Amino acid sequence: MKNLNAGYGFLKVLWDVSIQIDRGEFVALVGPNGAGKSTTLKTISGLLPPQSGKITFDGQVINNQDCALNCRNGLSYISEELNLFTGMTVLENLEMGAQLLDDKNKMEENLQFVFELFPRLEERVGQYAGTLSGGERKMLAIARGLMSNPILVLVDEPSLGLAPQVTEEVFNALKVLNKKGVTILLVEQNVTKTLKFSSRAYILEKGEVVLEGPSSELITNDHVKQIYLGT
């Protein structure tokens, strides 16, 4: 993202935001409620058209490009709302995530991969998504997002509303995913955990990037410690 401005009608949310993510990185975008974190992900994914600036993905400018085409080209967005098909089974939700794959053999391969990542989903493969626990729904949303074989995964607030143990499971799965070569941009309010798991981070406040750098350095930054870590 280069000097990106975006918002909703007359309400401007992002002000000249620039973010660089290299292939294979685990990058976090953190900040308070209303800072524009989710708006950033929606703009990258193609759900929200930018007002100005440039978004480049895998060497191609994707401003105003349809989100389905972005998905086909390797960009997966896992929203905070999850958007699961609650009246469909776990397996059917996962199959929906693979609809854009041309190689159906790849779907079976991806299915085995997400079951390794989240064994609990394999145990509940025939269960309706609407009957899963909150943590299981988060796992299913992430797993479905991986079924399209993405290059870059945008993950919005995966720990929201989860118990600490389940949060740890979800973060560990994201770490494993990144080690397997998938690039991750993570939006989170759990700053301490996010900075421990990510390699680099951007701090977004009032629609502007106020800090950026290696997560190991930001976690000791005075501003971050005072505002986000309470120390």
TrEMBL record:
Q: Which domain of life is it from?
A: Bacteria
Is Lipid metabolism among the key words of this record? no
ABC transporter domain residues: 1-231
Signal peptide per UniProt:
none
Instruction: List the InterPro entries hit by this protein, alphabetically.
Output: AAA+_ATPase, ABC_transporter-like_ATP-bd, ABC_transporter-like_CS, BCAA_Transport_ATP-bd_LivF, P-loop_NTPase
The molecular function GO annotations come to: ATP binding; ATP hydrolysis activity; branched-chain amino acid transmembrane transporter activity
Instruction: Give GO terms for biological process.
Output: L-amino acid transport
One matching Pfam family is ABC_tran
Q: Is-annotated flag, keyword ATP-binding?
A: yes
What are the record keywords, sorted? Amino-acid transport, ATP-binding, Nucleotide-binding, Transport
Q: Which family is it part of?
A: Belongs to the ABC transporter superfamily.
Question: Matching PANTHER family, A to Z?
Answer: HIGH-AFFINITY BRANCHED-CHAIN AMINO ACID TRANSPORT ATP-BINDING PROTEIN LIVF
What name does this protein carry? Answer: Branched-chain amino acid transport system ATP-binding protein
- Give the originating organism: Desulforhopalus singaporensis
- Give the classification, highest ranks: Bacteria, Pseudomonadati, Thermodesulfobacteriota, Desulfobulbia, Desulfobulbales
